[in-house]
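Structure ticket #2291
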Amino acid sequence: EVIALDASTTALQVAHVLKESAKSTIVVITHALKVVMQLADNANITVISTGGVLDRRTMSFIGPLAENALASYNIKKAFVSCKGLTIEEGITESTDGQARFKAQLIKGSKEIFILADHEKFGKAALATVAPVTVVHKIITDKGSTEEELNRFRSMGIEVVIA
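Resolution: structure written out below.
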């Protein structure tokens, strides 16, 4: 299995679960230093870092080197966070660099899982990553209204409450 994790606190929690539960070999591609460090000591997980220019705010790599690195891999599942998620504006991010990286990640992945807590719904941040039509599943918390979640379900997107 080849998966990708972005540079969010939620993706870091996914990395923690993977670290504790990976019994067979998986490959994790990431641009996040904290994810690399979280997974470094599990022998069942091969970690690939994209490289690129360090974004000190998120402790992740961005820019053309990071974006181009993604083109080399066949990513099965991408776990992507966002700053905002709406039907109209889609998946949005607070910086252009993170938005471009996530757009490339989504483009090169077969299944897209959006990691968004209830505070992200109905908000649009600065830069558009992709339309919601690319999303297969949204993983969220219990704080979102059923009405809001049903709008995404009506588009064929599975919603998982974690």
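Closing remark: The radius of gyration is 15 Å.
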